[in-house]
Design a protein that fits this description.
Shape of chain A: globular
Oligomer: heterodimer
CATH topology of the largest domain in chain A: Dipeptide-binding Protein, domain 3
Largest interface: A-B, 62 and 58 residues
Strand content of chain B: under 5%
Mean pLDDT of chain A: 89
CATH class of the largest domain in chain A: Alpha Beta
Number of strands of chain A: 21
Shape of chain B: flat
Distance between the termini of chain A: 48 Å
Radius of gyration of chain B: 24 Å
Structural class of chain A: alpha+beta
Radius of gyration of chain A: 25 Å
Largest sheet of chain A: 7 strands, mixed
Mean pLDDT of chain B: 84
Number of helices of chain B: 13
Number of domains of chain A: 2
Distance between the termini of chain B: 9 Å
Structural class of chain B: mainly alpha
Strand content of chain A: 15-25%
Low-confidence stretches of chain B: none
Helix content of chain A: 25-40%
Number of strands of chain B: 0
Chain lengths: 548, 313
């Protein structure tokens, strides 16, 4: 018996030694809130995938710690006088297989992306990047007509249909990253980016361990990276953690250096003297808002075509109470259609939505005003009672569930005669209901793809996106067209002011009711520094991170 | 017996075919698109649906899918992981779940039989009561709660096991999830073993054997366990499949790249990946049907009465 016990003891000792954590200083262990869906730039649609791609691949430009575009693979660029032609001069950079990164790699990736017409192909089109002929290629035209060309391997010329003031910043978004054509073409269809062997990096890190769906992803420093001298982390390890309780415990025991916690846990962390030093509230560009379906053909929503009824609901919501009592992660109540801490003016440095009181006449918490609007709506519609179905996706955590329940209770209490019936559902079904016009009110959100108010304002044009409010306003559409492809596109100040006018039309009609701007409550180990956070595009960048 | 087995195999194939058809139709009528649509225009959505063949009549789509299946593949994903071929990804996940499942079966069966036999041999005494309480606890506590408990004590308070699953130390980091997964099977097997053994030990033929002077281990092996284990095997078979096909919550909590987690990933995204859901549904069904088939054959081997009945038929 004694022998057996001794044997067990030694076996356990051996196993413990084997599992002992590596105390190497240059290893960074980071929580990933969700799985990586795809490492293919043409198919990535989620935060986790974009982050992972940007760790491994550099695009033409990158963002510095203040969110300003600085050169990456492009050493420099020239813009034509009319702002419609960009010429990027590429630096000497290598893929991990030793090939040079060339202008043709960009041409190949961009053409392929537009041809595949996946979710993010829209970003090449006339509402965002305005790359010449992108809309036609997305609809099936020959990809060779796309306005991108490579006169030589180090020069990339991009032709635009209209000047795009934020174009250099847009080039830091993973959708515009290059793919090595020779490497890609040698792979079996659909296998690109499904393992370290089928993925090529030219960025700060390369994949060392990854299989699709893996909860544990390991990256290592790419020694052939053009800026390798500035990268100090040797091993970047990701762990997919779906529960914030798990994340907090893993942070406490040192299994992870960077985690995201939920609003509920922020209070607990603040009360802990040691942990509170690690807490960092990182504002994001996410806007949580209420979308009203105004289609008169829709049975319930018909009433929501009445602006006074929408204004009544918007003014009956106490946004401060929502963020203080239910969200609690540092998110901020928002009274504009553009989130706070997002899209700074390049001349003044002020955020677009810095003045939160500019639309106070239409968006505020004022029960008396809300009831006045309601009375007007009752007269106009000849009805005293209104009942609406509120749909929302409940698979993204319990914060939204609590927020929607609070909205229901506030609206029903402040607006007698208005009843909200809650319909939680999985995100896929929720999106289906939105596309099929089968909803009255949706509590939804939007995360910006690029650092410009237009990433939000284009949502509410007549063409709009999948979240269709069935609202159409010729003045609004005209302003957006002027600012994207029209006369104002090249005039920075005039465009900026016109976007405020568009926002005013939106909010005085209460097309949406903004709720709050999101934040991430992060815990970061004391010995970790240099992580860049951005409110648009790729939210976390680890190129400059250091572990002391 | 051969005829009986052939008939059972044919019935199993037919059942599987029907399941595939029903699954296929259900997935097609489910709300949602098989790819993310949030940033797509209505036109782009239609274009993409046409590309995936979702415009065709459902029977045509089914025929296409069956031809892919019969060629030995599960096709490509509709949105997950670049639309890569499903088979290698599914096999990797199955392998991970299988390995952990096998460990769980080992723990579950060993502990379950031990507790059950101990309880039966000490029927009516303290140990019997203790074992019953243990098995009731095992049924009542969900395996993921037990998993969180183990993780808290043996990874956080006493940092012995890794906090998350580490593929580079597969067996070592499989111990906690396997133990948690085995909890239910320990209880079920222990309860069944105990009850069956008590029943068999009270039966006339055991009493007769005792009166003929057969006692102890020989009596247990030849007369009690052999008869008592038949119903236990019935319980073990579906449990085995349950354990092998993974546990969604445990795989999610511990970060195991198994089939349970794959199913959640296929369903929970912005788009429901039809082909992954189908492939997993087919694999799970085939495993259940296969397990039940093996069970029927095992019955024949363990219980001579079934063999005889088959012969008479």
């Amino acid at each position: 018996m004694k022998k057996i016990l001794v044997l067990i003891f030694f076996t356990l000792m051996l196993l413990t030694t084997a599992c002992g954590s590596d105390s190497s200083d240059d290893k960074l262990k980071v929580m990933l809130g969700s799985n990586i869906v795809s490492l293919d730039t043409a198919q990535a649609t989620d935060v986790a995938s974009f982050e992972m791609i940007s760790n491994c691949i550099d695009g033409l430009m990158q963002l510095d710690s203040n969110g300003k575009p600085i050169p990456a693979i492009a050493e420099s660029f020239d813009v034509s006088e009319d702002g419609k032609t960009y010429t990027f001069h590429l630096r000497d950079a290598k893929w991990t297989n030793g090939d040079d990164v060339t202008a043709e790699d960009f041409v190949f990736a961009w053409r392929r992306h537009c041809q595949k017409a996946e979710e993010y192909a829209y970003i090449f089109g006339s509402t965002v990047a305005c790359v010449k002929n992108a809309d036609d290629v997305i609809k099936g035209a020959d990809p060779s007509i796309l306005g991108v060309s490579a006169p030589d391997s180090k020069t990339l010329i991009v032709e635009l249909d209209a000047p795009v003031p934020f174009f250099p910043s847009l080039m830091s978004f993973p959708t515009f990253y290059p793919i090595n054509e020779k490497f890609y073409s040698a792979l079996e269809n659909g296998t690109y980016g499904t393992s370290p062997e089928t993925f090529l990096a030219n960025g700060a890190f390369s994949l060392s361990s990854y299989v699709p769906g893996a909860a544990n992803i390991q990256l290592k420093k790419n020694d052939s990276y053009w800026n390798a001298a500035k990268v100090s982390v040797n091993d970047l390890q990701y762990q997919v953690v779906s529960s914030s309780d798990n994340a907090l415990t893993a942070f406490k025991n040192g299994s992870l250096n960077v985690v995201e916690i939920s609003g509920n846990q922020v209070e607990h962390v603040k009360q802990n003297a040691e942990l509170s030093q690690n807490l960092q509230i990182v504002p994001t560009g996410l806007l949580q808002y209420i979308s009203f379906n105004q289609d008169p053909k829709n049975n319930h929503a018909g009433a929501l075509a009445n602006a006074n009824l929408r204004l009544a609901i918007s003014n009956a919501i106490d946004r401060e109470s929502l963020v203080d009592n239910y969200v609690m992660d540092g998110s901020q109540a928002t009274y504009t259609a553009i989130p706070r801490h997002f899209a700074p003016n390049v001349k003044t440095g002020k955020y677009f939505a810095e003045d939160q009181k500019q639309f106070a006449d239409y968006v505020s918490f004022n029960v008396d005003k809300a009831r006045e609007y309601l009375d007007k709506a009752k007269k106009e519609l000849g009805k005293d009672n209104f009942q609406f179905y509120v749909i929302y996706a409940n698979d993204g955590g319990d914060t939204v569930v609590k927020v929607v329940q609070a909205i229901k209770s506030q609206v029903e209490e402040n607006l007698p005669g208005v009843t909200l019936n809650l319909q939680p559902m999985p995100k896929a079904e929720y999106l289906d209901r939105l596309t099929k016009n089968s909803y009255d009110i949706a509590v939804t959100n939007w995360t910006p793809d690029y650092d410009d108010p237009m990433t939000f304002l284009t949502l509410w044009t007549t063409e709009g996106c999948v979240i269709a409010e069935h609202w159409s306003n010729a003045d609004y559409d005209r302003i957006i067209a002027d600012c994207t492809t029209g006369a104002l596109a090249a005039d920075y100040d005039a465009r900026w002011n016109a976007m405020y006018n568009a926002e005013k039309i939106l909010l005085e009609n209460a097309v949406i009711a903004p709720l709050y701007t999101g934040s991430n409550a992060m815990l970061i180990s004391n010995n970790v520094s240099g992580i860049d956070f951005h409110s648009a595009g790729v939210n976390r960048v680890f190129k400059s991170a250091a572990v002391k | 017996m051969a005829k009986y087995i052939t008939k059972r195999i044919l019935m199993s194939i037919l059942t599987l075919f029907l399941i595939i058809f029903v699954l296929f139709v259900l997935i097609r009528i489910m709300p949602g698109n098989p790819f993310p649509v949030e940033r797509m225009s209505a036109e782009m959505i239609l274009q993409k649906r046409a590309e995936l063949g979702l415009d065709n009549p459902i029977l045509v789509q089914f025929a296409d899918y069956m031809s892919i299946l019969l060629s030995g593949s599960f096709g490509n994903g509709t949105s997950l992981y670049n639309g890569a071929p499903i088979k290698p990804i599914l096999l990797t996940c199955l392998e991970n779940s299988f390995k952990i499942g096998v460990l769980a079966i080992f723990f579950g069966t060993a502990a379950g039989l031990f507790i059950g036999i101990t309880a039966a041999l000490h029927r009516g005494k303290f140990l019997d009561g203790f074992c019953t309480v243990l098995s009731i606890l095992g049924v009542c506590i969900p395996s993921y709660v037990f998993m969180i408990f183990l993780q808290y004590f043996f990874s956080y308070k006493i940092p012995f096991f890794p906090y998350f699953f580490d593929p580079s130390q597969f067996i070592f980091s499989s111990i906690m999830p396997s133990l948690s997964l085995s909890l239910l099977s320990v209880s079920v097997i222990a309860r069944f073993t105990r009850n069956e053994m008590v029943e068999v030990m009270n039966s006339d033929y055991v009493k007769l054997a005792e009166s003929k002077g057969i006692y102890g281990f020989q009596l247990m092996r030849t007369h009690v366990l052999r008869n008592a284990l038949i119903p236990v095997v019935t319980v073990i078979a579906p449990l085995v499949v349950d354990l092998l096909t993974g546990a969604m919550v445990i795989e999610k909590i511990y970060g195991i790249n198994g089939v349970g987690k794959l199913m959640v990933d296929a369903i929970a995204g912005e788009g429901i990946d039809y082909n992954y859901v189908l492939a997993l549904g087919i694999v799970f069904s085939a495993l259940y049907i296969g397990a039940m088939l093996i069970l029927d054959i095992l019955y024949g081997i363990i219980d001579p009465r079934i063999r005889l009945a088959a012969k008479e038929n």
